[in-house]
Amino acid sequence: MKHLIKHMIxxxxxxxxxxxxxxxxxxxxxxxxxxxxxxxxxEPKKWQSDRPPIARDFVQQPPLIPHSTEGYIIDTKSNKCxxxxxxxxxxxxxxxxxxxxxxxxxxxxxxxNVSARRYFCTQCHVPQVDAKPLVENTxxxxxxIISR
Length: 148
Ligand code: HEC
Ligand code: HEC
Fold this sequence. Notes:
The chain is mainly alpha-helical. The chain has a domain at 48-148: Flavocytochrome C3, Chain A (Flavocytochrome C3, Chain A, domain 2). The protein has helices at 2-25, 82-85, 90-93.
């Protein structure tokens, strides 16, 4: 009995100490760098406003958005993008109509309306800011679309 209690105490000790040791090893992503509370905040970049369409770099690329999308809501009740880009509205708004691919569901069935997988436009299409690339990129478009 005495032995058992001793054993239990040791086991309990280990269960409490081991996680505590582990916790001490955890480090934040910032590493040892302290938060600079008073550092100057970077100015947020401004979304680029209306400009001509931006050339694509590869055929399957979702075209980049050449206008600001600030305040454009896409939710279950409404989709601001479709108020200009749907087949019903594009002519009046002078926008590009969404392509046929946007009506195909994941099983390859053609639908009468935008497919759910293409409903949240900004999953693939992104507005632009005038920012320096973070890393150098030497990608060159394929010849087939270079003259666009
Ligand atoms: C007020 C109308 C309007 C709204 C709302 C709108 N757009 Fe546009 N969009 C345009 C017009 C106009 C163009 C430019 C067409 C041109 O000059 O060829 C354009 C261009 C684009 C293009 C470039 C097409 C290409 O072939 O290069 C994309 C992509 C796009 N919009 C996506 C979106 C998305 C995503 C949303 C919602 C977040 C949105 N747009 C909301 C009017 C609109
Ligand atoms: C899953 C990714 C994805 C989503 C979501 C998506 N698109 Fe696209 N979109 C693409 C790709 C890829 C292309 C280029 C190839 C093509 O036409 O399918 C494209 C092309 C376009 C074009 C150019 C069509 C043309 O004829 O040149 C417009 C405009 C557009 N999308 C608008 C939209 C709008 C508006 C929505 C939301 C209702 C949307 N897209 C949702 C991927 C997406």
